[in-house]
Amino acid sequence: MADHHELLTSNPALGERVRLTAQTAGPRQWAGLALLSLPTILLGLDLTLLHLALPALALDLQPSATQALWIMDAYGFLIAGFLITMGTLGDRIGRRKLLLIGASAFAAASVVAAFSTSAAMLIAARAALGIAGATLMPSTLALIGNLFVDSRERVLGIGIWATMWGIGYALG
Predict the structure, then answer these.
(1) What is the domain-level CATH number for residue 96?
(2) How many domains does the chain have?
(3) CA-to-CA dists, residue 32 to 37, 141, 146, 166, 169, angstroms
């Protein structure tokens, strides 16, 4: 069970002291953080995954030089381009709903990318992965912010979440 600790603050304008109670995170919140950090690993991994695989893909799919660039760049461009839009969409439809939609779309686009039979198909799949990835970043971050009431734990949770991006990037 989560512990509580009290914070004392003063409101000089009113001449009174206010007692705030902050709840420390329990096992459920930390398990939620672990679960919400998994998509972040995949996002980082997918950003760098094709760096080593592109020569083999080039032999199989025979992309032009321009297509090879788009195979590598479409994912990152679309994540960056849609982050703010997807964050706003999460505010409107709900972060949890956006996370589920994004995770499903990411899985489907991953399957299409894995079984692509042409460079154009792989570019389209990577673009879809980028848009789906853009849904995962703001929704997981917002949900992590909601998990932790205590500001120190929230900072730690966000730090762990951000570290998972770097781990995924390094694994790719």
Answers:
(1) 1.20.1250.20
(2) 1
(3) 8, 12, 11, 19, 22
Please give the radius of gyration of the chain, using alpha carbons only, rounded to the nearest integer. Answer: 21
Closest by Cα among 58, 82, 79, 56 to 69: 58
The residues facing 19 across adjacent strands are 8
pTM of the entire structure? 0.79
Sign of the dihedral defined by the CA atoms of residues 31, 95, 146, 106, in that order = positive
Element (H, E) at 141: helix 119-147
What amino acid occupies position 15?
Answer: G
Average pLDDT over residues 22-39: 84
Q: Helix (H) and strand (E) counts for the chain?
A: 6, 2
